[in-house]
Specification:
single chain; alpha+beta; DNA ligase i, domain 1; D-amino Acid Aminotransferase, Chain A, domain 1; OB fold (Dihydrolipoamide Acetyltransferase, E2P); 3 domains; 19 strands
Length: about 525
C-alpha cells in the first residue's frame, strides 16, 4: 500500500469527530491492506512505530530536513518499515550520521503531506484519535468478527497488528486460537477508584479486600527452573530481580503465571518510597551489590495459569484458591472477604497503619479482564492522587535556573486519545528529581513555546492534591488545587493515566449537596 493512502486516511480522521465515522474509515483501509502490511499499518494508524523511537530526536530531524519534497507519491508502507528498521539497528561510532542520512533520504522521497505525517509519527504527535478502542472496533468491522474476540486477543498478545492480521486472514477461528502462553506477558487488569469502603461495597456487594501496595507491578512466568519477570509495561526485567527469581524456583508448581507487586521494605516491614523500589528495575550492573543494599520483597495477588490450566476466565474466588494452594503465605497478599462495611473499614485501618496507601476491593465472581479497567477492581485511597501525563515543563528561576521545573499536567481523554491540561505544579521536587526530569524531558522535547518545553506525552507522574476546583483557565474547565509531585511512574504507560472522567467524578463528589 502507498503511504499516500495512509496519509489521506490520517487527514480524514483528524477532521472526523464521530466515533462511528472514524471506525468506518479505519476498517476500510485495513480491509485494503496486504496481510504483510497490516502489522505495520495498524501501528502507524495508532500513531506508533513498530521499532519504538529509532534514535531520532529534534537535532537529528533538523539535520535530516531535505531541501525539497517529492512531487509524486512513491513511498510504500514497506519502504517506511525498512527505513525505520535500519535506523533502529544503526549503532556505534557514526550511527547518528547514518540515521540522519537514512531519514534525509526517506523524507526526500516523501511528498509534503507525507513529510508532515512522518514528522508527527516519529515524535508521537499524530493525535488523530485512533486509539486502542477504536482500532479494536475497526478490526472487528473489517473482519466481520465480534469485538469481544478482537479485544480479548489484543489483551492476550499486546499486538493489535498481529491480531488484525489473524482476524482478517482467518476470522473468528483464528482469534479463538489465540490464548494465554507462558513467557508472553498479558496486559495487567486495572482498577477504577472508589471514594470509600461504602461506595465499593455498594457496587460489589461482597468483595475481597487486600492491601494496595505502593510498589511496582510484576507478572511472573515460570516453567520448571525457567523464570521470567515482566513489568506492567510488559518489559522483561528478570536479570534485575534475582531474589524474586530464586523464590519462584522454590514453588511446587511446574508451570505458573502470577500477578503481583515487588516492593522495597524497611527493616520494620514498612514500605519504602516508590522511587526506591523502581531504582532496582533499572539496575543492569553490579546487581548482587544493589540487591544487598536494596532487597525487594514480592507479593502475589492473582494466579492466571497453573500447570496447563488457564484461569483468567475463572471467577476471582477460584483464582484465590489456586493462589493459596500454590504459594506460601509469605508470598501472598493478605486479604479478607466480606460484605460488611465495618469489617472492611477495620481492615483498611490496619493496612494504613502499616504504611500502605489503601486497599483494593475485588469482585469475587469476576474473571481476570487482562488490560481492562472495569469496576470489578476498585482502589480505595484516603489521600487524593492522580496519575497524569507531563505535557510540557517551564524553565525554573533562582536555584532552579537551568532546570525544567513547572510541569504542565494532563489527564487522558478517552474520546480523542489525547490529553486535557489540568494545571501546573513545581512543588514536591527534590534537587535529584529536578536534575533527572530535566534530562528526561529534554529527551522527549517536540518544540518550544516561550519558556516552556513541549514534550511528547509519554511520562506519567503521580500527583497528590487537595481538591478539584472549577477553572475557566484550562480546556477541561477543571484544575487541581495544591497539586504536588509524589513521584514519577515510569512503570506506567500514558494510556494508563487517569482520565478526565475520573477527575470530573472527584470534582462532583466534592461538590455534592
Amino acid at each position: 500500500m502507498k503511504l499516500a493512502r495512509l496519509v489521506e486516511t490520517w487527514q480524514r480522521l483528524t477532521e472526523t469527530g464521530g466515533r462511528k465515522a472514524k471506525i468506518d474509515r479505519l476498517a476500510e483501509i485495513l480491509g485494503d491492506m496486504d496481510p504483510e502490511e497490516i502489522r505495520i499499518g495498524v501501528k502507524y494508524l495508532a500513531g506508533e512505530l513498530p521499532q519504538g523511537r529509532p534514535g531520532i530526536g529534534p537535532a537529528v530531524m533538523r539535520k535530516a530536513h531535505p531541501e525539497a519534497a517529492a512531487t509524486t507519491a512513491v513511498l510504500t508502507l514497506r519502504d517506511l518499515d525498512d527505513a525505520f528498521q535500519r535506523m533502529a539497528e544503526a549503532s556505534g561510532p557514526g550511527s547518528t550520521g547514518e540515521r540522519v542520512r537514512l531519514l534525509r533520504d526517506l523524507l526526500g522521497r516523501a511528498t509534503e503531506p507525507e513529510q508532515a505525517f512522518l514528522r508527527r509519527l516519529i515524535f508521537g504527535e499524530l493525535r488523530q484519535g485512533a486509539g486502542a478502542g477504536l482500532m479494536v472496533d475497526a478490526v472487528a468491522l473489517a473482519a466481520t468478527v465480534p469485538k469481544t474476540k478482537v479485544r480479548r486477543a489484543v489483551m492476550l498478545t499486546n499486538d493489535p497488528g498481529e491480531v488484525a492480521r489473524a482476524a482478517l486472514a482467518g476470522g473468528s477461528e483464528a482469534l479463538q486460537r489465540i490464548g494465554l502462553e507462558l513467557f508472553r506477558p498479558v496486559q495487567p487488569m486495572l482498577a477504577q477508584s472508589a471514594e470509600d469502603v461504602n461506595e465499593a461495597l455498594g457496587h460489589l456487594e461482597s468483595a475481597a479486600f487486600e492491601p494496595k501496595l505502593d510498589g511496582a507491578r510484576i507478572q511472573l512466568h515460570k516453567s520448571g527452573d525457567e523464570v521470567r519477570i515482566f513489568t506492567r509495561r510488559l518489559n522483561d526485567v528478570t536479570p534485575a530481580l534475582p531474589e524474586i527469581v530464586e523464590a519462584a524456583r522454590t514453588l511446587p508448581s511446574r508451570e505458573i503465571i502470577l500477578d503481583g507487586e515487588a516492593i522495597a521494605l524497611s527493616a520494620t516491614g514498612a514500605p519504602l518510597p516508590f522511587q526506591v523500589t523502581m531504582s532496582r528495575f533499572s539496575t543492569r550492573l553490579d546487581v548482587e551489590r544493589v540487591r544487598t543494599e536494596t532487597p525487594l520483597s514480592s507479593f502475589f495477588f492473582d494466579c492466571l495459569y497453573l500447570d496447563g490450566a488457564t484461569l483468567i476466565d475463572e471467577p476471582a474466588a477460584e483464582r484465590f484458591v489456586a493462589l493459596a494452594e500454590s504459594l506460601p503465605e509469605d508470598l501472598r497478599l493478605d486479604h479478607v472477604e466480606t460484605g460488611d462495611a465495618e469489617q472492611a473499614s477495620a481492615f483498611l485501618e490496619r493496612v494504613m497503619k502499616t504504611g500502605h496507601e489503601g486497599v483494593m476491593a475485588k469482585m469475587l465472581d469476576a474473571p481476570y479482564a487482562a488490560g481492562g479497567r472495569g469496576r470489578a477492581w476498585l482502589k480505595i485511597k484516603p489521600a487524593h492522587t492522580l496519575d497524569l501525563v507531563v505535557l510540557a515543563a517551564e524553565w525554573g528561576h533562582g536555584r532552579r535556573r537551568g532546570r525544567l521545573s513547572n510541569l504542565h499536567l494532563g489527564a487522558r481523554d478517552p474520546g480523542s486519545g489525547g490529553f486535557i491540561m489540568l494545571g501546573k505544579t513545581f512543588k514536591g521536587m527534590t534537587d535529584a528529581m529536578l536534575a533527572w526530569q530535566t534530562e528526561r524531558l529534554l529527551a522527549l522535547e517536540s518544540r518550544r513555546e516561550g519558556i516552556a518545553v513541549v514534550v511528547r506525552p509519554e511520562l506519567v507522574v503521580e500527583i497528590a492534591f487537595n481538591e478539584v476546583q472549577a477553572s475557566p483557565k484550562y480546556p477541561g474547565g477543571l484544575a487541581l488545587r495544591f497539586a504536588r509531585v509524589k513521584g514519577y511512574r515510569e512503570d506506567k504507560l500514558p494510556t494508563e493515566a487517569d482520565t478526565i472522567d475520573t477527575v470530573r467524578a472527584i470534582y462532583e463528589a466534592g461538590n455534592r449537596g
